[in-house]
C-alpha cells in the first residue's frame, strides 16, 4: 500500500501526544485522516468469514476490487454523502441458558468506517481513560482486570465488595449525552456528524426497519469505544474525583466495559457507593439491576465473620466469567482470592 509523506500512524501518534500534553485540547481537524491508507489498513484487520449485513456483501467480495471500492467510499465520506445502513439483527443461543441473545451485524463498509473512526478517537481517549478501565482497550485484557482485582482484595485492605450490574447498558446509552461527552475533546464536525449517523442508523429484523433513538450501534466496531467513553464520564471520573476522596478507607473501582466491581475497606463506604452509584447512573439514563447488585463481605475477615454469623462459608461474587471465593494459601497462613468458572457456563 503506497503511503503519504507522513504516515497515518505518525499522525495518530502526534494526536496522542497532544491529547496527553493538553487534557483540555479540542481537536478540530481529524476527518482528513479517513484516507486510503487508514481504511486499507482497517480492511485487512477486519475478521474473515464473518456474517454479512443487509447488503450481503462479504469481505472476500469487497476485496476483489478493493482499491476502487475504497476510493469510491472515501469520495462519499468526504462529500458527506455516506449514509450508514441499518444493522441486521439475528439471534444466537445464550451460553448457559435456553434463551437467545440478539446480535447486530453491520454491513462491511459500516464496519470499515467505524474501524477508521475508532482508530482516530482511540488516539485521543487512550490518553484520557483511567488506569482501572480494562475492556476493549489496546494492550489490556480481562486477565489484567482479574489480576488487579485479586491483588487489590488481597493486599490493599479490602473487606467489602460491591457487585454491580447495569440493565441492558448498550441499549440504554443516552445518545445526546454521548455526543456531549464526545464534544469535550472532538470539535471536528464531520467526525461528530458521522458518529451521530451511526447512532441513528437503526435495526432491520425480518425485513422490518426500527429506528434507534437510544443505545450504541449493535455489533458495531465503534461500540466498545463509545461504551468506554460513556462510562468514563458517568462512572470512572465520578468515582475517582468525587466519590473516592470522601471514603474513610481504601476504595477502588475496576471496570471491564459495562462489567465492574468496587472494593472497599469500610462497610459504610460500600453502602454509600451503592446508593450514590444508582443516583449517578440515573442522571445519564442508566439503571442498575437490583437483583444483580449487592454488597458482600469479601476479604481477609470475611470467612471469620461468616462463621460468627453461623454460616459455613463467606459469600462469593461473579466477575468476567469467574466466581470469586475466599480461600487461603497452601500453608493456610495467608488470605487468597480463589476463582472458578461460573457454574452455569459449564453446562
Structure overview:
It is a single chain. The longest helix is centred in the C-terminal third of the chain and has 21 residues, at 223-243. The chain has helices spanning 8-21, 36-45, 59-63, 66-78, 108-125, 142-155, 169-172, 175-183, 189-199, 223-243, 267-282, 302-308, and strands at residues 87-93, 100-105, 160-165, 203-205, 208-210, 251-256, 259-264, 294-297, 317-319, 322-328, 335-341. The strands form 3 sheets. It has a 4-stranded mixed β-sheet, with no helix packed on it. Helix content is 41%, strand content 17%. Strand 9 (317-319) and strand 10 form a beta hairpin. The mean pLDDT is 94. It is an alpha+beta fold and 347 residues long.
Which helices and strands, and how do they pair?
Blueprint (H helix, E strand, L loop, with lengths): L7 H14 L14 H10 L13 H5 L2 H13 L8 E7 L6 E6 L2 H18 L16 H14 L4 E6 L3 H4 L2 H9 L5 H11 L3 E3 L2 E3 L12 H21 L7 E6 L2 E6 L2 H16 L11 E4 L4 H7 L8 E3 L2 E7 L6 E7 L6
Parallel strand pairs: 1-4
Antiparallel strand pairs: 1-2, 3-7, 3-8, 4-5, 6-7, 9-10, 10-11
Helix pairs in contact: 1-5, 2-5, 8-9, 8-10, 10-11
How far apart the termini lie comes to: 48 Å
Strand order of the largest sheet: 2-1-4-5
How many runs of DSSP E, i.e. beta strands?
11
Describe the largest sheet: 4 strands, mixed
Count of alpha/pi helices: 12
Q: What's the multimeric state?
A: single chain
